[in-house]
Every structure is written in C-alpha cells, then in structure tokens.
C-alpha cells in the first residue's frame, strides 16, 4: 500500500509539473507580443494530422502587421514568414545566416539524402559554393537545346495521342515530359518516359514522392531529433530507390570518364567537381581550402538526385495549372500567343534561349516555375500562327 501511495503521489505531482512546463514553453511568443498560432500539447502548432494547405492557412489567418507569425514545433519556438520582403531577406539578402531547412539527412545509411537542400551549417556553405557556378544563366543556356529537343518529342507524342484519344490526362503527360528533361540534364541518359509511361525513372521518382518511407509523425521527429534518428539508422529514401539511382549515376560517371565524353548538362559539371574540384572556365582564386575539395561520388549522386526531384513533379504541376488557367482565360492565352509569335518573328521563327527570355508576359504567366527551361514546353504548346 505504501508503494501504491508513493506512485499515486508521483502521478499527482507529475501531471501538473508537465502541464506547467508546457505552459512556460508556450508563453514564448505571448511574452514578446508576437502574433502566434495557439499550440496544443504536445505537438505545438504543427498538428500531425493536418495537411500542409490547412496548416499554412491557419498561419496566414493569424498574421497581422508583423512580418511573421510565431509557432511551435513540439516546444521549440519557430517563426513562419508571411511578408514577401521578409521572406526575401531570409532567402536572398541574409541567406548566409539561414543555412538549415530543418530536414534530416543521413549520409551513412541514406547517401541520397545528403543533398544541398538538406545539409546545414558549414557543409551547406561549402557545397553551395561549389555548386553555384553550375546554375548560372550561361550554363542554363547550354542545356537549352536539350530541353528544346525533348519539347519537340512531346509535341510529336501529343499529336499521336490526339489521333486516337479525345481525352488526355495532361498532368501525367507533362510529368513524363519533365521526367525526360530532368533525367537527361541531371543524369545524362534517355528516360523515354514520353514513349513509356512506366519507365523506371518515372516509376522510382513517383515512388519516392508518393510513398514516403515513414509516416508524417516519424518524418517530423526525424527532423526535430536528427542525431537520434541517425543513431536508429532511419532513412528517408526507399532502399530500391537508392539502389536504382546510385546505380544509374555510377554507370553514367564510369562510362563518361572511361570514354572521355563531354555533354552540356548538369552531370558533366558534377563530374568536373568530382575530378577537379572546380568547373572549367571558373576562377579558382581566393577560394577557401575547404571549398576546393573534390566532390565525393556520394555527394555527386545526391545532388543529381535532388535536381531530379526538384524539377519533374513541381514543374509538371505548375505547367498543368498554367494550362488550365489559360483554358479558362482566353484573353490571357491570346496575349501569350501574340507575344510568342511576335518574338519568334524577330528570330526567324526559331525558338532560342535569347528569344525565350524576351517573352516577358509568358514568363509572368508561368509564375512559380523553378527554371526558365520549362517555359519552352509552354511556348511549343502555344506556338500557333494566325
């Protein structure tokens, strides 16, 4: 009985102690007069069951004159930026102070997770400095003919489908296009997703995005407790997905190095960083010794993988919504077509990188695109002479 009494007293004392602990933690933003989303024990402001759209909606409803809204991940106070100028400060002007995205990575057990988007601190700074020269407008211009070639294949595929089908799933068709573009530019291989909807690149890319290894709760805990998740050897990438993409990259790199093959694509730039620690034609003076270290094969594969993921699904979704809105707004569609025909007339009917950059209204219409490369497909779609 004495033991039971002790246990009961411990429980009675423990419950209010825990409650007071959370109350103290959850007073951070209130004490500072910052608008915040009311937290719930123990999740904080980020409920696991809530989808991202609803979560963002809650934050924007709580915004005021402040450029951000306070929130909590478990008991950790965080801010959610809601002002465009403030967001620009974080992402552009002061990006050196905001190196972390709060995404866990495990380069030992999950090498593809150790990409530029997931790294933090000095590792992120070092890798970013190495990769910055690969995303200049000049490099993108070199890749443009490849994108244009695949856009022509898309046009042919669309023409063939329209002969036999009255209704098309545009989202899937555009995803196949962007898969071929990213696969060619990032990995330097022909994915053939336009011809074969079940091509391996598309299959494994969709699996990674649509079938997460862990549920939302475990995924968030991995980000909150990265060291603990590494101790448990938790991964974010399916084993077969890792095996496929690592194998593809290894074959591509080995073949190019053995046969001294050069191409105007992202993979060629990564191979230069792997073998020479710098990109041909880029100044190598006044660079920190930590930065000039060569990329490892695993680092190379991880960057190619995130380049692939960051392009094929996001871009196809944006293109799908853009074409849908154009179908609803004939006046905007007519303006885009008129600008396309006007600019192409100056370039003798030939779509070039420079011609595309002169299509300002088109670029504004395809707002949200991550790269101007994908506007070429949009131009092909609307390239109709009156």
Automatic annotation (TrEMBL):
Keyword ATP-binding: no
Membrane topology: Peripheral membrane protein
Superkingdom field: Eukaryota
Gene3D superfamilies membership: Cytochrome P450
Membrane spanning residue stretches: 6-22
MF (Gene Ontology): heme binding; iron ion binding; monooxygenase activity; oxidoreductase activity, acting on paired donors, with incorporation or reduction of molecular oxygen
Keyword Kinase set for record: no
Primary subcellular site in the record, as a coarse category: endoplasmic reticulum
Needed cofactors: heme
CDD domains, per the entry: CYP6-like (cd11056)
A GO cellular component annotation in the UniProt record: endoplasmic reticulum membrane
Location(s) in or outside the cell: Endoplasmic reticulum membrane; Microsome membrane
Keywords: Endoplasmic reticulum, Heme, Iron, Membrane, Metal-binding, Microsome, Monooxygenase, Oxidoreductase, Transmembrane, Transmembrane helix
Membership in a protein family: Belongs to the cytochrome P450 family.
Protein name: Cytochrome P450
Species this chain originates from: Hermetia illucens (Black soldier fly)
Classification of source organism: Eukaryota, Metazoa, Ecdysozoa, Arthropoda, Hexapoda
């Amino acid at each position: 009985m004495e033991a039971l009494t002790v246990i009961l007293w411990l429980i009675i004392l423990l419950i209010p102690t825990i409650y007071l602990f959370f109350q103290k933690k959850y007073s951070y933003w209130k004490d500072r007069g910052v608008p915040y989303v009311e937290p719930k024990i123990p999740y904080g402001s980020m409920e696991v069951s809530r989808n991202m759209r609803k979560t963002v909606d809650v934050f924007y409803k709580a915004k005021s004159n402040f450029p951000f809204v306070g929130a909590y991940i478990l008991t950790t106070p965080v801010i959610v930026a809601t002002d465009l100028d403030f967001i620009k400060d974080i992402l552009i002007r002061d990006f050196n102070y905001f190196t972390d995205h709060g995404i866990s990575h495990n380069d030992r057990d999950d090498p593809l997770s150790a990409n530029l988007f997931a790294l933090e601190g000095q590792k992120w700074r070092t890798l970013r400095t190495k990769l910055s020269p690969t995303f200049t407008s000049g490099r993108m211009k070199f890749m443009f003919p490849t994108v244009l070639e695949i856009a022509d294949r898309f046009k042919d595929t669309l023409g063939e489908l329209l002969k036999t089908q009255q209704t098309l799933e545009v989202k899937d068709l555009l995803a196949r296009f962007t898969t071929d573009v990213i696969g060619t530019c990032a990995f330097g291989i022909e994915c053939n997703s336009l011809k074969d909807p079940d091509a391996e690149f598309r299959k494994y890319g969709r699996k990674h995005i649509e079938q997460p290894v862990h549920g939302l709760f475990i995924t968030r805990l991995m980000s909150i407790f990265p060291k603990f998740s590494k101790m448990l050897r938790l991964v974010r990438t399916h084993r077969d997905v890792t095996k496929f993409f690592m194998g593809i990259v290894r074959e591509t790199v080995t073949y190019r190095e053995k046969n001294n093959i050069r191409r105007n694509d992202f993979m060629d730039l990564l191979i230069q960083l792997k073998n020479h620690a710098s990109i041909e034609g880029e100044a190598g003076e006044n660079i920190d010794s930590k930065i000039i270290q060569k990329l490892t094969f695993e680092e190379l594969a991880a960057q190619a993988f995130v380049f692939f993921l960051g392009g094929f699904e996001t871009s196809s979704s944006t293109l799908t919504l853009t074409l849908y809105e154009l179908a609803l707004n004939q006046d905007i569609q007519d303006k885009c077509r008129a600008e396309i025909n006007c600019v192409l007339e100056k370039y003798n009917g030939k779509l070039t990188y420079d011609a595309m950059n002169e299509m300002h209204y088109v670029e504004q219409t395809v707002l949200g695109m991550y790269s101007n490369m994908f506007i070429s497909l949009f131009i092909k779609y609307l390239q109709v002479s009156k």
